[in-house]
Amino acid sequence: MKFSAIAATCLTFFSQVLGEAASAGPSSSKVTLPTTFKPPQVFKNANLVHVISLEKNYAKEAINVLIENVSSEPQDEYFLPFTSAQLERVGGVEVKDRKDPNVSGFVVEVVEFDPSSDTQYYRIRLPAPLPAKGQQTLGISFYYLDTFSPLPAAIDQSDKQYLVYQFSAYAPSAYPTLKQKTEIKLPSSDIPDYTKIAGNDDIKEFPQKQGSKLTYGPFPEVPAGAVSPAKVRFEFTKPVTHVSLYERDVEVSHWGGNVAFEERYTLYNHGANLSSQFNRVKFAQSQYFNPQSSALKDIRFPLRVGSKDAYFTDAIGNVSTSRFRSSRREALLELKPRYPVFGGWKYPFTIGWNADAKTFLRKKSGDSYLLNVPFIEGPKQAEGAAYEQVQVRVLLPEGADNVHFYTTIPESSITEFTVDQQKTYLDTIGRTVLTIKARNLVDDFRGRDLIVSYDYSLAASLRKPLIVFSSMVAVFVGMWAISKVDVKFATK
Questions:
Q1: Could you tell me if 274 and 155 are in contact, meaning their C-beta atoms sit under 8 angstroms apart?
Q2: Which residues contact 450 (CB under 8 A, 6 or more apart)?
Q3: pLDDT digit string (tens) for 181-212?
Q4: For residue 20, which phi and psi values (nearest 5 degrees)?
Q5: CA of 235: how far to CAs of 154, 238, 243, 343, in Å?
Q6: Are 71 and 42 in contact (CB under 8 A)?
Q7: Which positions ≥6 away from 433 have C-beta within 8 Å?
Q8: Mapped to the 3 state alphabet, what secondary structure does 48-63 carry?
Q9: Which pLDDT tens digit goes with each residue over 429-473?
Q10: What kind and span of H or E run contains 298?
Q11: Dist. CA 320–CA 81, nearest whole Å
């Protein structure tokens, strides 16, 4: 994997840097404004397409919008509104230029201005101010976690599961929109209920249904902040996998030439509860024809080629119902929990594995090293997985300093980062630990890079073996000195 040049460029051009001192980073993307703040009406949305994807167990929304500067001066701040409830569940906000993917430099920040207000904002800074009457096409994407409600709330273990999602037929916008439409993409065409609203022109009623897609609009001009409440109920007989806490440790060993990974999951199924007691006999019988089920029965973890020594444990201990395959082309860890995880059930577990350091670690120059690992690996399931709280720790060798990092995870999702020390076996000052906390991520970010740059001198690398050698010498010298002491009673 050739990433030295790419990583060096990233570390040069991106400003998310950590000093070597042990200090906590502030919330990485929050701006405080006066309580009287209102987004200035300097833009209008000339055309907008709002796409809501409900094909996984979280909602993904994409807003493709052609914005136009209607003021007489250049503008570079575009605001995106959310309700307070949505703000707690939204994550992974990213912005791109739809017409030119090479354009970069969009900065996304949470605006804090009035905690009592039900409307909150994300501020999007454009790479360059948009001149008067200028236009730019933005692609804004984000995710909502834990927003589905099962209906009915309790089902039999072999029944179909239906979920309800509430949304607005108008896209959220702090500016007037001249033309827009909203598309809802669903996992199947089994959609028993959805909100119907009056149409316009030749269309008598919205939405238009085409297979597993609903389309609201096109709508004529809509004022800023307009909302049209709607909801849809659809069939989703799959587990609604929600990880409330995901902890990932990456431990680097220069002497052992190894990178050790460990991931700890607090996993829930937020689907419909069972309406009666779980019947294991009925469940075992159903495995012969493998029907769709709302229970989580197995989990697949594709790992990097060359991974080895995989393990799977839970609160009880080692779990033997797993299979690990590793070859020159793939490495796959397949797990079966001790029990099927139905709606409302919880299953905490831990997995781990080792990998050759050459796969992830490169020497940049002199005493500088570059580590490139995925920020999140996690399971790869058809129904997806959502992560509410994420903590990634990179344990560097003892004596490592001048730590910097860059990640392709959206900066708005990172809440805190620190560099400190943690003592392990035979340490004196402790290992350098980089800790990054994030929230509201999904499996779409699986495999996004975390690049860590650090210095590790020859003296620091020799610290531990010299201490071990000195300790052993001291023990033997002490034993020799004790053996020379005459403890016999003297005779006259």
A1: yes
A2: 372, 373, 374, 375, 392, 394, 405, 406, 407, 409, 436
A3: 999 999 999 999 999 998 887 888 899 999 99
A4: -80, -15
A5: 14, 9, 22, 15
A6: yes
A7: 393, 394, 395, 396, 419, 420, 421, 422
A8: EEEEEECCCCCEEEEE
A9: 788 999 999 999 999 999 899 999 999 877 767 777 777 788 888
A10: none
A11: 48
Pairing verdict, β 229-235 and 193-194: antiparallel
β-partners of residue 353 are 261
Phi-psi region of 28 (alpha: psi -120 to 50; beta: other; left: phi over 0): alpha
Q: Which helix (H) or strand (E) holds 175?
A: none
The kind and range of the H/E element at 314 are: strand 308-314
Q: How do residues 88-104 score in pLDDT, each as one tens digit?
A: 999 999 999 998 888 88
The dihedral region occupied by 176, where left means phi > 0, alpha psi between -120 and 50, and beta the remainder, is beta
364's CB contacts (< 8 A; 6+ apart) are 4, 8, 370, 453
**Sign of the alpha-carbon torsion through 77, 80, 81, 86:** negative
Q: Is the separation of the CB atoms in 231 and 167 below 8 Å?
A: yes
Laid out side by side, the sheet with 322-326 consists of: 299-303, 331-335, 322-326
Q: Note if the pTM is more than 0.85.
A: yes
| CB count in 10 Å sphere of residue 141 | 18
Closest CA to 259 of 299, 214, 218, 304: 304
Nearest CA to 412 out of 142, 175, 147, 173 is that of 142
Report helix, strand or coil for 333: strand
Please give the structure tokens belonging to residue 392.
């990634």
pLDDT higher than 50, residue 23: no
Q: Which residues make Cβ contacts (< 8 Å) with residue 288, sequence separation at least 6?
A: none
* Structural tokens at position 144: 């909502």
Comparing CA positions, the residue from 383, 384, 444 lying closest to residue 413 is 444
Give the Cα separation of 311 and 337 in Å (integer): 13
User: CA nearest 165: which of 240, 80, 225, 273?
Assistant: 240
